[in-house]
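Case study B.
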Amino acid sequence: MTTHQPASPPQQKAIPLWRDERAIKWTAQIVSGVIIIGLLFWIGINFIEGANQRGMTLNFKFLGDPAGFPISDPVLPYDPSMSFGYAFIVGLVKTILVSVLGIFFATIIGIIVGIARLSSNWLVNKLALLYIEFNRNIPLLVLLFLFYFAVFNQLPSVKESLTIGNSLVLNSRGIYLAWPRLTATGIIWIVVIFLSVILAAVAYIQLQKREIDTGKATYYLPISLAILLVGPVFSLLLLRGSPFNWDVPVLEGFNYSGGMRLTPEFAALLVGLSIYTAAFIAEVVRAGILSVSKGQREAANALGLSSFQVLNLVIFPQALRVIIPPLISQYLNLTKNSSLAFFIGYQEVFSVGKIAINQAGRAIPVFILVMLVYLALSLFTSLILNWYNRRIQLVER
Amino acid sequence: MAVTETTSRPPEPPGINAWLKDNFFSSWINGIISVVSFLVLVWLFWEVLYWVFVEADWRPVIQSPVLFLFGQYPRDMLWRIGICMSLISFLVGVSWGVWGDLVRAFAITIGAVLAMFVVIPFQSVDWTPAVRGVLVANILLIYIGFIFARKIPIKSIYVTVGWLLTIGISIFVLLPGLENSEILPKIPTTLWGGLLVTLILAVGGIVLSFPIGVLLALGRRSDLPFVKGFCIAFIELIRGVPLVTILFMFSLILQVFLPAESRFDRLLRALIAITIFSAAYMAENVRGGLAAVPPGQIEAARALGLRGYQINLFIVLPQALKAVIPAIVGQFISLLKDTTLVIILGINELLGIGRAVINSDPEFIQLQLEVYLFIALIFWVFSYAMSQSSYRLESVLGVGERY
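Model:
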């Protein structure tokens, strides 16, 4: 609020203090500062007093104490005699696991539905609309309850398991998937794949850049695809021996063993989060593609670009600019929504925190920890967002 | 000017065949996709219809309609809810008459929901003819309000005041009752439940968070460092954590934060937590609206000699708030959906009642799908109607289309 006033003639009377803008500003600064600091101080004093009265601890020493509660399906090796801090980390890992997988599936479903929503085919379009409107307008918690209590918990008992060949077994204990386990050759093979992906990406970027710079066709797409295929295929032929063994679920006694087991809680949470968030991502993708003006596509066609080039060089770079920021905030929403796992008994960071609070009355420090985890996640996300936005802005000018 | 013979006639309007070809069979692949999705759609439609009318067992829903709507609210006091509903129905009708198209979809949805409850063949002793009669009367009241507002012109500010008065009296006087009163005995909020609580939390949350959100948004733009810092810290802290943690914090830690003598009702605690959560999001919405006000407006106002608060009150806020109405409707939808989380405090809102109904009878354990789908349907109808009216608001207010 810098107002440039013209220099007043010297004979004018001095402005009274209560009309002087600088005086008003200073008073406002001081008064607001006193009020806010006073408020925080009042809360703080009440807080410490209340905590002392109730015998609550305000330090983090208990993190080293044994946790004393079990965690179902811990991803890391865990037993109740291990420390509380470690139990908390197990919860954190479970949060991250379900979030990352959820983001992966939600993005795939979301992109497919979003593009289907733009289809010129009336039926496909309306099917996508049905999907979006159904999922967006019911609470996530209702969706989770539907999947957990009404679907995964109602699956038949072990004896009457639903099976699809040897590869998929569904019963009330969970979902068993046939899973490829790597052998020694498999590890080498994975390394080769990894290297060829990097090589292909470098070739793609460099050759594409050269094509744009010089105008000569470098056939970047076929070349990079060839690199991507040749490495893994040749190494597979040279190595001989299967890169992985299928680990198949087998009925042993009263239960299935082998394969990849997903608990009903995890499956319900993953399916619910992915399906729900995918509806929002579909809208983001649709809005992004629609934001690229029609003239861009027409101009690209007029220049004689192939339809792949139109998408790759003209539409996507511009659509991504609109898509990425809301997409990342959807990812953050999904991560925060994973705290609803508590309601269906999947023990992630919030649930672990809640058990610890109920058991030991260390409400405040545990709570600060949980909040810090989520705050760190959202801070991390907004850092990425800001970085991306800055990069985009540079491109623009 | 004579019509020349060479003028060709305009092309024939595309027939059904052309429409089919354009939309379904423009290419081979498209044709295959069309056939597959048609089959999927028919199969889905058939399966759903068959399940709803033949296979599903709707007993848990049909036997306890009053529970789903109002929870344990004393049955001989239901007339109080009836009065609140009638007032609101009438106001919905009046708003429809005054604001026209903006409210129409919403008013029709309310009527449809009421009609749905009249038509569904509930089998319960609570579901008396009187209850049915009140629901029918409410549908009529919407229409009467509409005709009333059409006949007698009413200023929209009076309608707004009417809404605020009705909501305030309903939530704070009629429903909870008064101490030592013969006619309106106190009804503890532990007995409230169902859709009633869901709507109270959502409407109360959005109404209460509005002024706080506006203040926070203005504070964020302030050039007082303390105020600005406080507002930014508050908004980012609340937006950074999930609603469950805030609700849980209020159920547990609020007691420690406040002086020992202040004790809060459970529902009130949930309402405060939801208000605080919603205020942070409201502030960001309003900030978007504030940023959309062109700086020339502020400069012009300053040139006219208006003071700081006058500029905000008469120039900036009216324009900013008009631009954010659709965003606020969107926020209301997500708040309505988020109210389900209050079951962590043991409050039986719609979803909590659903759980209680399922656990009330061992036979119902197998009927969870029916109960949760019924609840999903209620949420869906409300949110869908709101989102449709939000699209309409966007086009009527011309948000994003100016300049």
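Chain A is about 65% helix and 5% strand. The remaining cases will be described in the next quarterly update.
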